[in-house]
Amino acid sequence: MNSVPVLTVKPWRALFDEKFHVVVGNLPPTQEVTLHSLHQSEDTDYWEAFGHYVSDAQGMVTVAKDESFGGTYEGVDPMGLLVSMRPIPGSRTGLRLRIKDVQTPMLVHISVYRGHMSQGFREQAALASVITERWYMAPGVRRVDITEGGVTGTLFLPPGPGPFPGVLDMWGGGGGLVEYRAALLASHGFAVMAISYFFPDHKKNTTIGYPYFENAFRLLQDHCLVATDRIALLGISFGVTVVLSITAYSETVKPRCCVCISGLRSIVVSVQTQCFPKWLLICSVLLRLVLFCPQMGRITCPLLLVVGQDDQNNATVEAADDMKKMMERAGNSHLLTTLSYPGAGHLIEPPYSPHCKVSSFLMPESRERVLMLWGGLTKPHTVAQEDSWEKILGFLREHLCHSVKPHVQSRL
């Protein structure tokens, strides 16, 4: 009697930044099989990844140690079924997989098929299938809408009595309120406020200056469960410009440390006079002045800089060099830590997020939708996301937490 293949995924329910282990057993020795992952996004688009494997002498495939010989990823890649996800053939152009509702899990269907397949998965019967859950919010994390002081945002609070170290989380020029990184950080013990400051609706009053960010910082700082003197700023892309500007020039925003991911070359933009969405013009004019800006000399807290060396969207490598030189001249270079990753692109996100090399982007002023090139190669970009996330968590713990126990991954 033929044995029935068994597919196991452990843990099948986990935080988004936890690895899973995929194993197929009860196969004939040297059997060619395809492992396939499938996810339907909140926008109803389907995403997939797949790898081609050959079972060992015991009739097993262990993704963590066995090589994929083809598919959307190759070689030994324990998380290839997530990080190499791409829209299925025939999908809309320029898709980017982003979770909007962080209170529900990302469901991923993992299946094993006989033979090495690259298409037609829906037409074939799987040998075995498992549904996995990937969560951004750990049990007990609370989500609170923020609409005070003119600030639009969301606060995520870890379980427990607090007080918790705080993080003010700012995304880039895409606009809107992005919550998933904040929710995941809260799952690691930080009180995190994600704010919207670049409004997609260009017809509304979009003049943003220091008071907006100062109000957001004060709201986080004054919360009864937040440690008043232990708050960090975190920004990506244009958010880096905001982080550095308010840290250098605001009289009231005094973060304990800052994390900057994929920052713009034109880091001299001051939000004091910034009127969105005119930022592209301002950035291009001030680009030439970057080396003469005193801003970096005004930074007095530890600064972690994350750079993708294949960033095709911004001159982040040059920006990192500029910042280092300016801080050396100012005598505060001891505050700067730079993580630079070969082959990584612009969108360095929490680990195991699918690598996005190009996607559709709505230009803030013209409202024209274009394809934006972000850069990066899947394997090195994946390495950058995993490594930088652990170091970002370590950096935040070092500077925000008085005493920290080693991180233990949460099993949901």
Index terms:
412 residues, alpha/beta, Immunoglobulin-like, Rossmann fold, eight-stranded mixed β-sheet, six-stranded mixed β-sheet, 7 helices, disordered C terminus, BAAT_C
Question: What's the structural blueprint in terms of helices and strands?
Answer:
Layout: E1 6-10, E2 13-15, E3 21-25, E4 32-40, E5 46-54, E6 61-62, H1 80-83, E7 86-87, E8 106-114, E9 128-135, E10 142-146, E11 152-157, E12 164-170, H2 180-186, E13 191-196, H3 210-222, E14 226-236, H4 238-249, E15 257-261, H5 279-286, E16 303-308, H6 316-330, E17 336-341, E18 358-362, E19 369-373, H7 378-400
Work out the strand percent: 25-35%
Number of domains: 2
Give the class-level CATH name of the largest domain: Alpha Beta
Give the low-pLDDT segments.
Answer: 266-292, 403-410
The average pLDDT value, as a whole number, equals: 88
Class per helix and strand makeup: alpha/beta
Domain Acyl-CoA thioester hydrolase/bile acid-CoA amino acid N-acetyltransferase: 17-148
Domain BAAT/Acyl-CoA thioester hydrolase C-terminal: 212-268, 296-400
Family: Belongs to the C/M/P thioester hydrolase family.
InterPro entries: AB_hydrolase_fold (IPR029058), Acyl-CoA_thioEstase_long-chain (IPR016662), BAAT_C (IPR014940), Thio_Ohase/aa_AcTrfase (IPR006862), Thio_Ohase/BAAT_N (IPR042490)
